[in-house]
Amino acid sequence: MFCSAIRNILKNSQNAAKYGAISPQLRNLRGQGVAQSEVQVFKSPDIIAQQNDKETEPATQDSFKEVALDFGNREAHVPSFNLAAYVNKSSTLQQFISLGVDLHSIERRKGLGQFVLQLDFEKNVKPFITFLVDQGISPDDFGRMFTKNPLLFKEDLDDLQTRVDYLKSKRFSDEARQRILTHNPYWLMFSTRRVDRRLGYFQKEFRLSGHDLRLLATREPNVVTYNMEHLRKSVFTLREEMGFSPKELSALVVRKPRLMMIPPDDLVERFSYIHQDMGLSHAQIVQCPELLASREFRLRERHEFLKLLGRAQYDPQKDMYISPKTIVEGNNFYFVRNVAKSDFETFDLFLRTR
Amino acid sequence: MALTKVYNAATAFKNLGGVLNVYKPAGMKVKHVRNAILNNICKGLNKMEQREPGKLREGRFLGTGTAADPVLHNIAFQTDQSDHVLSAGPRYLPRDLSCSTVSSLGDHTSGVLLFGINRGTGQSSSIRKSRPVRVYHITGRLGSATENHLPDSRVTMRANHRHVSADRISGLAASIQASHQRKMFELCGVDLQTQEAYELACKGLLRPADESQPVVYGIRLVHFERPHFTLELHSINETQEYLVALVHDLALELRTAAHCSQLRCVRHAHFDVRDSLLRNSWHLPGIIKNLRHQRDILRAHNQQHRVELKAIH
């Protein structure tokens, strides 16, 4: 049986050259196979089968043990698809795990697995951790930050210090800087010139004051490092397709910078529902940008439920006014009880008729 | 049956099987519903108590003959970090679950959509093979016909509909139903006025043998409010295209034009829209509760599913 197993392995190895890495072990196995066959030749065939088994079993066990050991060593130099294969060998990776870094999601991105594997914790990682602690970032966020952007360790520490100093010079407060660094781990990858250009773009595009610009960057730090092409497209959509005036646009963007990161098609769909079906004016939408940030089906089911109850009245001049902001607030239960002032069974039944 | 709280993901996974009754929202593809359900199940499972990472095997280090070495000895009793959730990835992935739809619904159709999950895939295929009747509520809008008979495309025709009354729609619906019943017997090759046809009819519903032909068993008007009318339709092997075309033809027969404003599947076999899982409860506890509920329904009606199929020649 053992011999046939070896034969199978050999057959496979002939078929595929990619098994080159285990060929020394195969040679080893082949040697053992020969030794075993010699044993069998040496024994006369008259001997009872049971005895033969007893003789061969220890031999096979030994060889299995050796094979297992060989495969254990193999982990160190044979390429693997996963970082998990190296975790038990590498103290850096173990440290990463104790920090809460998700190695699984790192290895799925191209080139990052290789990069992380070459890091040395003491030399490459520790200085960055001290740097981040100096910036006042809580250690709980390290795992998430390094998972998102392991390439931070490639940067020069002096550069990082310059970038933080740039933020200081632009009078971002301590809390603002902490928020920016924790919420957007990519921010520090951008050179001061590039960040400056982008902040300048927002300031010029929406005619923002320094305070508003800081507010925008702190509210949604991801906007500043977002893809410029996407940003231009959504700003075009907001201005030209939806027709917000420059003043309304700047108010909208400062209140909800995330709108610029939503795909323009979705944004237009939501806007047309809010503006045409719910009948809210531009000014009302600017008052409550959360409407544009919530998904269309959610708006639709809530608005239609209110309409069914006869409570969809968004004009503050009249009785029974319902603030548009409260429509998108909270979960369904909160909405049904406090805004629609109905019960959950009715809402369920209503949803089943759509 | 006593219910116990479960905190362990493995136990929850073991109990995750059966037929699931989901309320599919209109405008969402079946594929997207399926992915949302599977992703939510996995998200729920991964949030529960996970299996601890295993211990490193001792045998690996004994071989080197340095078991006395304190460092190696320590390693041997450490946990296997490569089995940690952070290095090996989440324990449950959508592809670990098997899922099959009993029968599909069109994009614009809302309502009951049945999934077989894990060991429920077998049940789902047996439901599919028994070819149960599906009941639809179809709302049409009189006055305008559109290119694909649905509200989201170009209007191709407008017509007056003042002459249309509830009686006329009901009458036409009844005649459509009668002609479909007659067609079934004709396809079987029996004359309607014979003993053979009588015996066939005694055995219950005459079902098609394959999925090729849509068959309508019943159609009636349930609601009429000037531009809108709602039909209740019982059928097998229907598709969304067939249903919307039926509404279009019905309107032409009434000397007017109409398109379908809403299609809703209210019942599929014994699975009613009232027990279906709404989008706001597509999470693990909701899904498991629904699976349990559908299992009771299936158990109560088990006999009906083994209907002998009658072939149409």
Automatic annotation (TrEMBL), chain A:
<dbReference type="InterPro" id="IPR038538">
    <property type="entry name" value="MTERF_sf"/>
</dbReference>
<dbReference type="GO" id="GO:0005739">
    <property type="term" value="C:mitochondrion"/>
</dbReference>
<protein>
    <submittedName>
        <fullName>Transcription termination factor 3, mitochondrial</fullName>
    </submittedName>
</protein>
<dbReference type="InterPro" id="IPR003690">
    <property type="entry name" value="MTERF"/>
</dbReference>
<dbReference type="GO" id="GO:0006355">
    <property type="term" value="P:regulation of DNA-templated transcription"/>
</dbReference>
<keyword id="KW-0809">Transit peptide</keyword>
<dbReference type="Pfam" id="PF02536">
    <property type="entry name" value="mTERF"/>
</dbReference>
<comment type="similarity">
    <text>Belongs to the mTERF family.</text>
</comment>
<dbReference type="GO" id="GO:0003676">
    <property type="term" value="F:nucleic acid binding"/>
</dbReference>
<dbReference type="GO" id="GO:0061668">
    <property type="term" value="P:mitochondrial ribosome assembly"/>
</dbReference>
<dbReference type="GO" id="GO:0006390">
    <property type="term" value="P:mitochondrial transcription"/>
</dbReference>
UniProtKB/TrEMBL annotation, chain B:
<protein>
    <submittedName>
        <fullName>Pseudouridylate synthase TRUB2, mitochondrial isoform X1</fullName>
    </submittedName>
</protein>
<comment type="similarity">
    <text>Belongs to the pseudouridine synthase TruB family.</text>
</comment>
<dbReference type="InterPro" id="IPR020103">
    <property type="entry name" value="PsdUridine_synth_cat_dom_sf"/>
</dbReference>
<dbReference type="InterPro" id="IPR002501">
    <property type="entry name" value="PsdUridine_synth_N"/>
</dbReference>
<dbReference type="Pfam" id="PF01509">
    <property type="entry name" value="TruB_N"/>
</dbReference>
<feature type="domain" description="Pseudouridine synthase II N-terminal">
    <location>
        <begin position="108"/>
        <end position="239"/>
    </location>
</feature>
<dbReference type="InterPro" id="IPR039048">
    <property type="entry name" value="Trub2"/>
</dbReference>
